[in-house]
Description:
The protein is an alpha/beta fold. The protein is built from ten helices and eleven strands. The strands form three sheets. Strands 6-5-4-7-8-11 form a six-stranded mixed sheet, with helices on both faces. A three-stranded antiparallel sheet has the order 1-3-2. Helix 6 runs parallel beside helix 7.
Amino acid sequence: xxxxxxxxxxxxxxxxxxxxxxxxxxxxxxxxxxxxxxxxxxxxxxxxxxxxxxxxxxxxxxxxxxxxxxxxxxxxxxxxxxxxxxxxxxxxxxxxxxxxxxxxxxxxxxxxxxxxxxxxxxxxxxxxxxxxxxxxxxxxxxxxxxxxxxxxxxxxxxxxxxxxxxxxxxxxxxxxxxxxxxxxxxxxxxxxxxxxxxxxxxxxxxxxxxxxxxxxxxxxxxxxxxxxxxxxxxxxxxxxxxxxxxxxxxxxxxxxxxxxxxxxxxxxxxxxxxxxxxxxxxxxxxxxxxxxxxx
Length: 295
């Protein structure tokens, strides 16, 4: 179970999102609107029908011509968290289990959820907006459109009740979600990315207009299986089981394929100019969070 106490430790991180996005993206956070609390942008000549309250009389006094003051409304930066909730994420030791007490929780979904919650909490701390969604074959938004610390705590309860299951359709889920983003934003995608690299790249391409970070979670025993000899292997997403002999030759093939797959996801991210951070769930959580949060 995710203990909300970890949120207190986030104070060590700089919550400012202004440095997390480039100048072009920040420019996209402005819109030309009129109202209170806006920033002056420019002048334009008065046209019949314009709001006379926006006339700049000082300019008129100097030029004897009528100009309208234009303003830019500051939009909050929106942080989007997309957390893979498929069955393959249900792997590793959960917090509170005997195994977790011995070596620490390594559960991929739990660990990934904490990464996303950390992003949401720091966004709320800066009075920025956040959106938190799970995805499998499609996406499911689980926040209540309240970008507050109280909402982060409510999300912990919701995530503690979530059982990862089903298969992930990366292309459909990410493409569908991309249509809900109406301005450039900061997007965190947390997943083990166990799927077809081409489909994953297609889904990520739909998000690539934004500042995107991939939190690629890998459990320690996935990288170094602690099984030798005869074993029964389970595919949790397809509910399939088969018996095999896990000898040194198969271990080498497995390690080569895992390395190649991780490399394929990293290469896709590079082609799309996205950040790819490989996260070992056996590592101290705050070291991992700093790796993903700090650019």
